[in-house]
Amino acid sequence: MPEATNSAPLPRQVADAHVDALVELDPVLGTYLGLPESSDRLPDFSPAGREARAELCRTTLARLAEAERRPGGDSAVERRCARLLRERLTAELAVHDAGEGLRAVGNLSSPVHSVRGVFTVMPTVSDEDRAALARRLRAVPAALEGYRASLEAGLAKGLPAGPRQVSTVIGQLDEWTGSGGGGSWFATLVTDGPEALRADLEKGAAAATGAMEGLRDWLRDTYAPAVDGAPDTVGPERYRRWARYWNGTDLDLGEAYAYGWEEYHRVHAEMRAEAEKVLPGAATPWEALRHLDTHGRAIEGVEETRAWLQDLMDEAIEKLDGTHFDLAEPVRRVESMIAPPGSAAAPYYTKPSLDFSRPGRTWLPTMGQTRFPVYDLVTTWYHEGVPGHHLQLAQWTHVADRLSRYQTTVGMVSANVEGWALYAERLMDELGFLDSAELRLGYLDAQMMRSTRVIVDIGMHLGLEIPDHSPFHPGERWTPALAQEFFGMHSGRPADFVESELVRYLGMPGQAIGYKLGERAWLAGREAARAAHGDAFDAKKWHTEALSLGSLGLDDLVAELSAL
Length: 564
Fold this sequence. Notes:
The protein is about 60% helix and about 5% strand. The protein is mostly helical. It folds into three domains: about 1-100, no CATH class; about 125-230, no CATH class; about 245-515, no CATH class. The strands form two sheets. A three-stranded mixed beta sheet has the order 2-4-3. Helix 12 (about 285-295) packs across helix 18 and helix 19 crosses helix 20 (about 495-505). The longest helix is centred in the N-terminal third of the chain and has 30 residues, at about 125-155. The two termini are about 20 Å apart. This is DUF885 domain-containing protein.
């Protein structure tokens, strides 16, 4: 990165200074970035800790305004970083100032999930690693006490979390602590520790388990009764704020809702055609999918499935590198993992550390299953792994020194990333990798899920009317109950997955719509670039350059992609 004139910082340096300061406040972030000095601490989730993070945002915004006035501060690369930094910090402050952190309870993303999740990515090779693990385990009680203080402050301010979020998290804490008879997750975490550290590790695990049990009891006995009767949906004002946070733009929600319905009807027609090939005479595409659940190709065994997914990603890398992508050697490494018990139902991805010492990893929640239909796995792993999340986020890591660490880590815009991953599924279909009706029906089922997400997420949070052209309750207004029924009718996935997904949408308003809206932005950018270059359009070059842009909100994504 170039030096700033007279040692005064330019926007990229301001952005990276923000990352350094943020790591001090959020050691969990430091661990995900691969910084060992963060490995034995946890964040302060109390109101004071949240305000410290907000004050950092304010300070950085002031420094950014100065940096943009410096010579060189208006260059293209500096301007792109500055726009992202300003938009992200402004969106974060809007969420903070509205008190959203004081009611942060959800089944997928909350402080308690952050606390547990960081233990799944910590290195545990050396005695030093294990000692840091023990110290971080002992830090769990203070972190959860700060979280509880924030929730208490939220209650005092009349800012309740949704009751369905609370009951779901109570159930997750039951599972993590072993209250249902399965044993404590934290105790399992330290079972293979070295003898010299065994006592410290077991003491830390017991402290962490006890803190989780204490939080569960408080949520069940005090917090849940206090929020009983509060709405699970957030309403228009909160929804718009969260939609900006997750998508990096102020959306026209009416247009987005209409687009969701357009995609619903388009995908449904394609599904009917593929379903007829899978099961002639099937009444619905989901009848054909249920047929595939028992009669289609499947992998038996959890470890066998993990290994099969690893082979699938390795094969995709071999076939795509040099033809449709230009992959650096560190980006070619990705690991298939089994998610720990108590995870949400959806598979997920964790990005590599900045030095690639920890590779990118995909995670499969088994939900007690041992048999996994292939139609559901293939397109999901094109999304989570290759060419989806892994190729984008690992490439960002690879080019972090050319952009800024902020643009390739903290400044991630969900709709950009999820939009790319959904585009990646479509790309593999375009390239012929989904070479059977079985695999194409699975892909279209995933597309249908993302289309219905737009419909139900916007519809139920804003209480919109179901249009007359809907085959489901036309003219009625969306409620969470109707949303769950509609989603279940249009998904090949089991009931527990459908319920987990709905709880997720209620707890992360505006996030789920970014998949389809982000995919639309990626497709629009590609088509504009193709139109500009004509026959000279080089897909490999475009993909590689597009994945090297770093994070962009939907405000900027189409314009930047179109110019490549």
